[in-house]
Amino acid sequence: MNPKKLLPGALACCLLSGAPAAADINVIPRPAQIARDADAAGVALGASHIIVCADAALGRVYADTLFERTGLRLPVHPAAATAAGRPVIAVDCASLSTDSHVAHPEGYALAVAADGAVRVEASARAGAFYALQTLAQLAARDGDGDAARVTLPVVRIHDSPRFRWRGVLLDEGRHFFGPAAVKRLLDSMALYKFNTLHWHLTDDQGWRMEIKKYPRLTQTGAWRVSSPTPGNRDLPDGVPHGGYYTQDEIREIVAYARQRAITVIPEVEIPGHSSAALAAYPGYGNTDIPGYAPAVQTTMGVKPYIYAPKEETFRFLRDVLDEVCALFPDSPYIHIGGDEAPKTQWKASPFAQKVIRENDLKDEFGLQSWFIRRVEKHLNSRGRRIVGWDEIQEGGLSPTATMMVWRDWKWARLAIEKGNDVVMTPHSHCYIDYAESVEGLPDDPYYEHIGIKRSGNRPPRLLPLEKVYQFEPIPEGTPPEREKQVIGCQANLWGEYLFDWNRAEYNLYPRLFAMAEVAWSPKAARDWPSFQERLPAALRRLDQIQANYRRPDGAPARPRARE
Ligand code: TNX
Predict the structure, then answer these.
(1) Which residues of 152-179 are buried (b: 16+ CB within 10 A; e: fewer)?
(2) What is the CATH number of the domain that holds 154?
(3) pLDDT in tens, 517-563
(4) Nearest CA to 109 among 21, 35, 165?
(5) Which residues of the chain have pLDDT under 70?
(6) Range of the domain at 510
(7) Domain stop point among 159, 179, 198
């Protein structure tokens, strides 16, 4: 199909910067180009419509999304010949068009005509999938019960993403949520065109992934005897907490994500944040230091336990990572952590000091780089690249590593200058575990947040919705020819205070929507007043699926999880 045919002259085409509100449509993230006849009445989407899509699985995922949003269940047919005069949602996922949006592997063109015909054009499955997500958001339901009508605006859209890494970090090291929660998150991510789930599966407080060769990682490492008491973090609650994903469950989640054009990137924390692994296999830690006694941690915060630079530790990590690579076959990257690895144990360990001397390393920071490079080499030999938190530059940044910037923007500048790729997740704009505001936070200890009560006169750590929305991932001063090294951005949902999935959703929404627009929409299309106008429809969908979220006044939509 010629994309130009999608654009009749009668419709005013607008690149969205400064577009009149009437031309806007209720879609998040805002598409790159929209042409809308604002005067045209919406066309009815009814049970007589059929979806024509050669990729039946894709058609079904779409039909499910549409059903969830509108209550309409449309049939899926593989070829147009079966349409027999019924209005068609025609999906072409192998277009050879040279239109820049259609040719983009995640881009698409979408047209809703006044006669109810809908055409989707994409050069690859992901683009077609995103077109259908846009269409699902466009389908507005008016009225209730039998009188309900589902309508689509008459519109033409050309769209493709600004960034290729559009991520959400899910931390299950601190609290285990389970497969249903992860799938619920993946559904939401898909609707808002995120393509990367960064799954943080190991930490001091729990190891959440079955590894066949080392069963104690989950037998021991997945369980802690106690957690901080909500409302009084210094008091142990005495309640065991834990859980983990079996390999079958992981494969199922990875496949579920793939159906939704999402790649799951697992994180195995190395060399720090490893108390749970060392509780299971103490021999891979710094056994030669006084008082060495690793345990799955029952409090949060940075812990001293880190892997020892022994040959048997590297063998263990290679074995673990080989199983991880097999479980996540689509992930070009493996995240190896690298953050918050205190050097106290390596300082105190005669063995670690010997490794530093024998390898001519400058100090413990040099040892950290040496450690990570050995792990990287192994992963490279398995065809994977590493991503690590910005501490991986301490002691020297590997030229082939991708850096995830979470602290100061100066680390991004340094990595970009050296030629490395970066993913931007600075805590100032991306840490959605922070509260949006102190005002309006429920009095319930279930809603306590990280960084509110801080020592001295330090102000609380807050991240309001608008600050997420105004986030600009490309650091100021980046030379234009290096901008492409900023491969994307990510919202991080750290789990220290997320006692269950209902609580997690309070932190996730609506800031997830703001990050979606930062990651996908052209910078020129981003517009805070327009976003605020489009927000209520997104919140209505959360009500429909009975999700919790933060209301504008700070109150939770669903204060507590149903028992
Ligand atoms: C810092 S970001 C951490 C996490 C915490 C988070 C809490 C990073 C690489 N490390 O371990 O959960 O802050 O906001």
Answers:
(1) bbbbbbbbbbbbebbbbbbbbbbbbbee
(2) 3.30.379.10
(3) 999 999 999 999 999 999 999 999 999 899 999 999 999 999 998 76
(4) 35
(5) 1-23, 80-84, 146-147, 563
(6) 165-544
(7) 159
Residue 398 CA to residue 555 CA, distance in Å, equals 45
Whole-number Å distance, alpha carbon 85 to ligand 1 midpoint, is 56
Residue 57 CB coordination number (10 Å): 12
61 shares its domain with 124: yes
What are 143-197's pLDDT values in tens digits? Answer: 777 667 889 999 999 999 999 999 999 999 999 999 999 999 999 999 999 999 9
Task: Report d(CA 247, CA 206) in Å as an integer.
Answer: 16
104 and 183 assigned to the same domain: no
Judge if the beta carbon of residue 406 lies within 6 A of ligand 1.
yes
Residue 561, in any domain of the structure: no
Instruction: Please give the pLDDT value at position 523.
Output: 97
What is the model's pLDDT at position 464? Answer: 98
Which residue among 99, 121, 203, 517 is the active-site one?
203
- Is 559 a domain residue? no
Same domain (yes/no): 188, 308: yes
Q: Are 51 and 77 in contact (CB under 8 A)?
A: yes
Q: How many domains does the chain have?
A: 2
Per-residue model confidence (pLDDT) at position 189: 98
203 is catalytic: yes
Per-residue confidence (pLDDT) for residue 18, from 0 to 100: 38
Torsion-angle region of residue 549: left (phi > 0), alpha (psi -120 to 50) or beta? beta
Catalytic residue among 49, 198, 200, 273: 273
Please say which residue of 112, 129, 159 terminates a domain. Answer: 159
Q: Decide if 526 is inside a domain.
A: yes
